[in-house]
Amino acid sequence: MDIPNFKDILEKLSVLKNSSLLSPIIIGVVGLLLFIPTQIMNGRLKNKVEAESIRKLGNQVRFLSGSAIAGKQWEEEAKLQQGHANDANEITRLALQSTQRQLLSYEVFPEPKGTSQFIFKGFGQRFRSAAEGLLVRVNARDCPTDAELNRATQSSLTSSRTSSVYSSRRSYTGTRSYTGSSRYPYGGGFSRTDEVSSTIVDGICRERAKSASVYGNPIGLGGYEFWEDYTYAGPEQAVGDCWYYQLAYWVIEDVVDTIETMNSGSSSVFTSPVKRLLGVHFSAGKMNSLKGTGYGTSRTRYARSQTASTITDDRPSYVLSMEDGLTEPCTGRITDEDVDIIHFNVAVVVSTKAIFPYMQQLCSAKEHKFKGFSGNEQEQSFKHNQISILEDRIVPVDREEQNHALYRYGEDAVVELDLVCEYIFNKKGYDAIKPESVKTALAGEDTTTTTTIINTPYR
Description:
Helix content: 40-55%
Number of domains: 2
Structural class: alpha+beta
Oligomer: single chain
């Protein structure tokens, strides 16, 4: 670095000429000029030493050692990714198994094994007997019939009239025809005398409640009446009937399984959380008409008075658009490429303590056995969980009201719990046995409903 000739500069300054301060000033200026670059060089050297010092390298080593990847970390990552793949495969497998269920008949799907109409009537007989068997399994019985009550009261009154003890206490000029009251609305011209008959009837009803775990009647199960006097209308229609009522049976089976679990350990309606199965239905017309007339004994009379076409309507149907089901689905699910969706209505009388446990149990996983769609394979145990609740309605039970007067529910406060539910089927799980006529019909309907879904906004 060239140092300027400060002496020449200072000599030009007349003030400092011949001054004794000239030398110190020169030395100070030179020192200042040397100090600045020295500090700059010192800072650079310090940074370089710091960057290359062992201490910093040691800190970096310690920092990196905490997040260092082990030599075989890739193996652990591979296991993790394989675990994710296994989970996905397991979900797929369970979804398939959920729809792989035992059939009521192995002679119908996907094509009838013969041309006889008795194949289809045999399916109907199996449907009815299986529905009855489900109720027997949960120890379900209905309330006493009009005929039972008539016999019991008439017999009691007859013996009472011949008793001198009874005659001395009270005399009757005869019996009067009874067609209904707020307490015992039996209908059918039931004859009684008020006080004695009421006591007898109450005793019979209580004994029935003690002997049953839950009230239930197979007539309340969608399809039971349909197959009673089945009229064959050709193979394609018959296969469709069998298919949709096979779906109905699986739903009914899950409903009854739920009741069985809820009432486990109870042998009396008085102690059972679920007191009564009012019905399981699949059509809006059937559901609404039954709600309008009520359930119970009047519901039984209603079902028997319906025409065949009305009863036929109470079979499941696939939900192909938001407007097709029993209610607008909060899940947003409709039948698509992967799943089939149906809706159903189930109504029960339950203890107020059992409302939410019952709903949870209805939507829980359930076990089923499967022997292949031929029925001849080795039996396997599968699980299915296909129900979602879309809508609920809770109504307090008026025990004096006509539809409950012959039922004894015990001391618990009870309500009618009315649910509209969604049932989901994995298509790949049962596609191998779905009849071609059903697939063709759905394909034709899908073409129509696609336009409807696009052009119609979600309500």
